[in-house]
Amino acid sequence: MNIETVIDMGMTIGAVGIFIYIGIVFYLKSKMLVFVEDTLEGSHRYYSSTFFLAGQGVLHYATIFFSKRHAKRYKMLEKRNIVPQKIQRIFIMAFSLFMLSVSLFFIPSGIMALFNIQ
Predict the structure, then answer these.
(1) What region does 2 belong to: left with phi over 0, alpha with psi -120 to 50, or beta?
(2) Cα angle at 57 between 33 and 17, to 5 degrees?
(3) 106 is in which domain, residue-wise?
(4) Model confidence at 101, in pLDDT bands (50, 70, 90)?
(5) CB-based burial of residue 82 (10 Å sphere; 0-12 exposed, 13-18 middle, 19+ buried)?
(6) How far apart are CA 61 and CA 81, in angstroms?
(7) How many domains does one find in the chain?
(8) Mean pLDDT for the chain overall
(9) Can you say whether the dihedral through the CA atoms of 89, 91, 94, 98 is positive or negative?
């Protein structure tokens, strides 16, 4: 197994992960994003209006559920405990999948550019 094969596998797995993330965003937008916005933002719906904003909203709320520092920064530390743990875990899982997939997709591209692999 040579380096080109490993790079191709990494980019393929990353691309598949990004498509899975897009499916998760569709699911969260239709089922849970409105509930989370109502709970945390006080019925101000910033992210549930379009799909593109929903992708950003999933990442935004995942960081609030994932980190106390971010929750304090956005003044949502007490409010985030109202959201059930199951929903919080789905948002955090989507965030982790997105970060892993983007890393697997773009880091091999950087390796290819660094070592002039064609």
Answers:
(1) beta
(2) 95
(3) 3-115
(4) very high
(5) exposed
(6) 13
(7) 1
(8) 90
(9) negative
Residue-wise DSSP of the chain: --HHHHHHHHHHHHHHHHHHHHHHHHHHHHHTHHHHHHHHHSS--SSSSSHHHHHHHHHHHHHHHH-HHHHHHTT-TTGGGTS-HHHHHHHHHHHHHHHHHHHHHHHHHHHHHHHT--
Mean predicted confidence (pLDDT) in 12-22:
94
CB 64 within 8 A of CB 73: no
Dist. CA 60–CA 45, nearest whole Å: 13
| Predicted TM-score of the model (pTM) | 0.88
**What pLDDT shows up at residue 118?**
67
Q: Mind listing the pLDDT tens digit for each residue in 53-96?
A: 999 999 999 999 999 999 999 889 899 999 999 999 999 999 99
